[in-house]
User: Fold this.
Amino acid sequence: MRVDALVSREAQSAFAREHGAGVVTTDPHALRGRDYDAVFDTFGAFVTDAVADGGRYASVATQAGPVPDLSSRGVRTTVNQVREDGPALRRLTELVDRGSLTPRVHATFGLQEIHAAHARFARGGPSGKIAVLF
Assistant:
């Protein structure tokens, strides 16, 4: 199995490589060619030209708009939206607590530091998420 990655910033390349990506690029055009059996889009890059006919295109980037209709190529598309799910959140918490799942957190800020959290986010380049603790 081959896994490649499209990252938004060059600074994320090392992380993608460390987690098994072969080709890592910031250029969506580098993935064109319709030779991927599946594409998982977490950004809304809509690299639909990268998925093979008969493949699968899944997205969690609902703020970017609907995934184009690819049914004429036999491509199944799925968009998953975030919704409240207490039991699933408890399962995720258990995985984190056991060390089975490690969230990528660049920095944490208390609610009283919300301005500093926003400023850190605006500077860009974090290696993980900016978290605000309540």
Notes: The radius of gyration is 17 Å. The longest helix spans residues 86-98.
